[in-house]
């Protein structure tokens, strides 16, 4: 198998590094954000575990950071070429990781909108008026979790499908049959 172009490997390393930093930042912001307030003589601490969707996003972002870190190590220390099974596995795991983080971010955003706007029909108050700092940190964590899950459209994904499908090209078949 032919090795990947140096520019493509460098771009993948850069994107993987950015995904590690953003996902780890999201997990740390969400995991360590808390605020204690006194409401009607009761001290209450708001943490990410209070909103189940935020806790799921924290775990998903931490897992995504670990996955992208492992893939970054693979990019740094393994050659650009590889078996077709390894390329497909990497591609499918990238997609699965992105979909899990994106879905958990969307669920956390939906749950936090209730805290931001409240729901009059069931008499849920606007909790972000009470726990302002916690809500701001949760919003920052959700913003940090979106780029690893769904990179901006002009930028390529961390593991481009073009490299995967290049393994099926006639030139690759000729190279593997001659060796």
Automatic annotation (TrEMBL):
Residues 10-146 form the Casparian strip membrane protein domain. One of its GO terms (cellular component) is plasma membrane. Keywords: Cell membrane, Membrane, Transmembrane, Transmembrane helix. This is CASP-like protein. It is found in: Cell membrane. The chain crosses the membrane at residues 14-32, 52-70, 75-93, 99-119. It is a multi-pass membrane protein. Pfam families: CASP_dom. Belongs to the Casparian strip membrane proteins (CASP) family. The keyword Hydrolase does not apply. Homodimer and heterodimers. The keyword Cell cycle does not apply. InterPro entries: CASP/CASPL, CASP_dom.
């Amino acid at each position: 198998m032919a090795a990947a172009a140096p520019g493509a490997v460098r771009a993948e390393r850069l994107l993987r590094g950015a995904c590690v930093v953003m996902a780890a930042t999201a997990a740390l912001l969400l995991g360590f954000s808390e605020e204690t307030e006194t409401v009607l003589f009761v001290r209450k601490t708001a943490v990410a575990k209070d909103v189940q969707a935020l806790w799921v996003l924290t775990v998903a972002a931490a897992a995504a950071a670990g996955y992208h870190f492992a893939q970054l190590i693979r990019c740094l220390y393994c050659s650009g070429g590889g078996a077709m099974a390894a390329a497909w596995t990497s591609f499918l795991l990238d997609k699965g990781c992105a979909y899990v983080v994106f879905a958990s971010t969307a669920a956390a955003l939906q749950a936090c909108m209730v805290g931001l706007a409240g729901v009059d029909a069931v008499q849920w108050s606007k909790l972000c008026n009470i726990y302002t700092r916690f809500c701001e940190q949760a919003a920052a964590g959700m913003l940090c979790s979106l780029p690893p899950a769904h990179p901006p459209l002009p930028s390529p994904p961390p593991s481009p499908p073009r490299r995967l499908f290049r393994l099926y090209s006639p030139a690759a078949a000729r190279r593997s049959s001659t060796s």
